[in-house]
Amino acid sequence: METKDTAEIIHAMAVRARAAAAGLRKLTTERKNEMLLKIADALEADRAAIGKANDEDVAAAKANGLSPAMVDRLTLTDSRFRSMVDGVRHVAQLPDPVGEVIWRRERPSGISITKVREPFGVVAVVFESRPNVFVDTAALCLKTGNAIILRGGKEAVRSNKALADCVRRALADIPDAVQFVEVQDHSAVAEMVRAVGLIDVAIPRGGERLIRAMCEAALIPVLKHYKGVCHVYVDDKANLPMALSILDNAKVQRPSACNAAETLLVHEKLAPVFLPMVRAWAADRGVTLHEGDAGVEYLSLDLNVATVAGYREAIEFINANSSHHSDAIVTDDAERAAEFLRDVDSACVYHNVSTRFTDGAEFGMGAEIGISTDKLHARGPMGLEELTTYKYTVTGDGVIRS
């Protein structure tokens, strides 16, 4: 497909999304919740068709030599499907941030100012592999009154098409509130992030290469995280069984996730005792240990290991080498933990907790639209509030400025 045709397709979708957003803005919370519950019911009814499409994508991915991490992200297991549907219903139960009064002030001039949450308008999401992202993001955007345009990777095109058809049928009254870009030409993404005046914000969910390409092409705001290089630091005042349990969860539970640990830092005083435990654990769990791979995101059963002179050196190491996503300290020393939580410059910092908790559902946000390592507008898991902006309404009785 030629670039001109792609540009026309994306422009037309963005125009329809803008019109849909105007309608969504007027919906009550009750109406939006009804739409979400209808989507959840439709997904359950279409489980067989969606599963068949996903099976075809997974088979093609394996035949094309996709990495195990990518295949894992692509696979829509029964438990993930159930979680996806439950996530839609959970979003329906969450408070609606739209219309929330952030603050109200009466000024000496006689004006009354209210700062109130409102939708962005139109959100574009570009994602790779995970089909559940389609439904998660659609649910969050609908709840917050945003129209959404989604573009998935070619490896999941059958799965995403099946999900899109299902969701749009459930939204019979306003189907253009959720649109799926079937065009696989890379220029489609560039057109989306250049749609000034039609698309308000873009959110990439994928690898660093995709994110950088979007940012370089963008003329609209992009909320992003480049990668998840997460650390677990084990202090010499740590409970060792606890430390090993946290490490195991952070690395092994789902190594392909962006919040999985990629580097283990160990206090040098503890190394003679703890590192043999780590090597035995790694051999048992199939983890390959590396040295000197600071800053590497493996997304696999690989783990970089380094020793540091203490918790302050760990803080320096993390700030220099992490992606500012999620980093943890394991220690029984409250003062060291407090200093770590204060000084590590990451979106999420943990004390005696696995980094795997960086997740919208675990944070009580419902399904998340992504995890931001930016510092402007949103940071960390992005839920409903992060999909809103705000405006000021100013009222008075013929007030003029002197």
Straight-line N-to-C gap = 60 Å
- Counting helices, strands and paired strands, the structural category is alpha/beta
Overall shape: it is globular
Number of strands: 15
What structural keywords apply?
alpha/beta; six-stranded parallel beta sheet; 13 helices; 19% strand; globular
Write the layout of secondary structure elements.
Layout: H1 3-24, H2 29-45, H3 47-63, H4 68-74, H5 78-93, E1 101-106, E2 112-119, E3 122-127, H6 132-143, E4 147-151, H7 157-170, E5 178-180, H8 187-192, E6 201-205, H9 208-217, E7 230-234, H10 240-252, E8 261-267, H11 271-285, E9 288-290, E10 302-308, H12 311-321, E11 326-330, H13 334-343, E12 348-351, E13 370-372, E14 380-382, E15 388-395
Parallel strand pairs: 3-4, 3-6, 4-5, 7-8, 7-11, 8-10, 9-10, 11-12
Antiparallel strand pairs: 1-2, 2-15, 13-14
Helix pairs in contact: 2-5, 2-7, 3-4, 3-7, 5-6, 10-11
Q: Could you explain how this protein is built, in words?
A:
The protein is of the alpha/beta class. It contains 13 helices and 15 strands. It has helices spanning 3-24, 29-45, 47-63, 68-74, 78-93, 132-143, 157-170, 187-192, 208-217, 240-252, 271-285, 311-321, 334-343, and strands at 101-106, 112-119, 122-127, 147-151, 178-180, 201-205, 230-234, 261-267, 288-290, 302-308, 326-330, 348-351, 370-372, 380-382, 388-395. The strands form 4 sheets. It has a 6-stranded parallel β-sheet with strand order 9-10-8-7-11-12, sandwiched between helices. Strands 5-4-3-6 form a 4-stranded parallel β-sheet, with helices on both faces. Strand 11, helix 13 and strand 12 form a beta-alpha-beta unit. The longest helix is centred in the first third of the chain and has 22 residues, at 3-24. The model has no long low-confidence stretch (mean pLDDT 94).
